Amino acid sequence: MNPKHANNCEELRSRFEGREAIYVEKGVLQVRVNNISSGRGFVIRADVEEIATAGLGVGMFHRPPLGAGPLRRSIAAGYLTTFSAQSWQMGYGGWSLYFSPEIVQAVAGFAARFPENADPNEGYKEVCRLLMELNAYEPTRLVFSDAVCPGSGKFRMSDSPAIGVQASSGWVVCPYCGKRFALFDSRRWDGERHTTCGQRLIINAA
Ligand SMILES: [Zn+2]
Fold it and tell me: How far is the CA of 118 from the centre of ligand 1 (A)?
């Protein structure tokens, strides 16, 4: 990983590891964020675990209260992921996390006042409005800054030299990140790069 990306990942990890946050993804949960890690390529991961909070989750996290343990999920973000002093976004419309203690408290306090039979989707919209009022959507910057063209937001050519690799029945194991992908999968292979990690490859047909 290039030093700038490594620094950003480390900054993000040291800011947010182990902290409580408001998790927003077509719904809202209060969570704790653990195990923030990055490895090769343009990927950074974390585990989120729900903190039981009266009135949450709303939206797609609404579920019957009986017998349901805390939700746990592993999240991963790619080259469009962004962060700020108090927030972290997957990018391109995925999840967002808001870590400011004032915002976490305000959302938890707000949700606690939801009536028992409140519409969960209405609750989600109300929390989004509250986040807007609280200025939760602060300006962000890219974690993998120079992997993205600033104008278009498109994935940019990796600067590292191309690596030759042997294809087998249209499949390739990327020698850089170790992930296996199909050459016909345009989400993974753009004809020049493995778009998961950004490495340029020269494909040698078997
Ligand atoms: Zn790769």
Answer: 46
